[in-house]
Write a structure and sequence with these properties.
Subcellular location: Cell membrane
Pathway: Phospholipid metabolism; CDP-diacylglycerol biosynthesis; CDP-diacylglycerol from sn-glycerol 3-phosphate: step 3/3; Lipid metabolism
Oligomer: single chain
Catalytic activity: a 1,2-diacyl-sn-glycero-3-phosphate + CTP + H(+) = a CDP-1,2-diacyl-sn-glycerol + diphosphate
Membrane topology: Multi-pass membrane protein
Number of helices: 9
Number of domains: 2
Radius of gyration: 19 Å
Organism: Salicibibacter kimchii
Largest sheet: 2 strands, antiparallel
Amino acid sequence: MKQRVVTALLGLVIFLAPLVTGGSVFIALVTAMAIVGFIEMLRMRRLTIFSLPAFIGLLLSLCLLIAGPQTAFVSNETLLTSVMIAVWLLLLVTVFSANRYDVEKVAFVLFSALYVGFGLHFFLAARLEEGFTFVLFVLIAIWATDTGAYLFGRKFGKRPLWPKISPKKTVEGAMGGFLLAFATSFIFASFWPPFASLWATFFAVLVISVAGQCGDLVESAIKRYYNVKDSGKILPGHGGILDRFDSLIFVFPVLYVLMI
């Protein structure tokens, strides 16, 4: 527990400083998160990171990360071309490797690039376009959901939420996550309202809390399928980047879809 707390405090400082600063510093942070997250995906599948498919997948993930009008590094046309080229190259790898690198492995590399690249893209775009206050509101709702689920689950948890995917998660924990997310988010919104109306704030917190817990379950499903406890070891006591930011990767794309 002590190691988890120390890592959490240090990680919070390292994470919040670029988040507050924004600009190139924040872009560098999210880019590093994308690189590490993609590597963690390959390692869960026990694929070597020193290979042509891994290099192609990493480039595609970074293209997805910095695409779009918010970042202005890669146009939509260039992005579409990049995706097509990546798919062609990955499929050709299956041919020239005589299926040593088969279609299933290629599909996983492509999925990993989409999962990490798109998820963190919308996190990056939200900070650059919507600003610090909006992103902080979303993060507080995510963290409160995680904390509430953990605390309520330990204290009152009896009914498993989804035992085949994550045996330790409970219905009571999920409800506790909702309650703490609403409490902390509305306290935050009373000082720095992210939306024009109270109903919009209520709906946003509901979406964030539900999507955050879904993102957590998705990551748990991937880890359980590949029989790994944590996605990585970069954060002592917490696991990997994907272990800590699985909710974030799921929440920001969902918010983007609803907001447009």
